[in-house]
Amino acid sequence: MSAEEKILAMLEALQRGQAFMQADIQDLKANMSEVKARVVKMEITQENIIEPGLQLLAEGDEALAFRLKHLEELPDLVEDIQNSVSVLKHVFKEHAHS
Fold this sequence. Notes:
The chain has one helix at about 5-95. The chain is rod-shaped. The protein contains one helix and no strands. By secondary structure, the chain is mostly helical. The termini are far apart. The protein has one domain (about 1-70).
């Protein structure tokens, strides 16, 4: 095999390799398009479903915190009412016995 034939054989091999690489590049471009489409879907889902859901959770948490604050005050209020009722019972009994 002459030097020229070797060079031509190497050139053909390089061209075949280049053709395979171009096919791989096309596959990568197609995959990248699929990835971009999935990312767009994920962004839409995040914007339209997840973020509003998180907002609702935050609002619900605020409402629960407000209720919890008032529930924490409830034992003191109950104790005040019990004391007032005891006083009224005592006064009523005193008036009933008079």
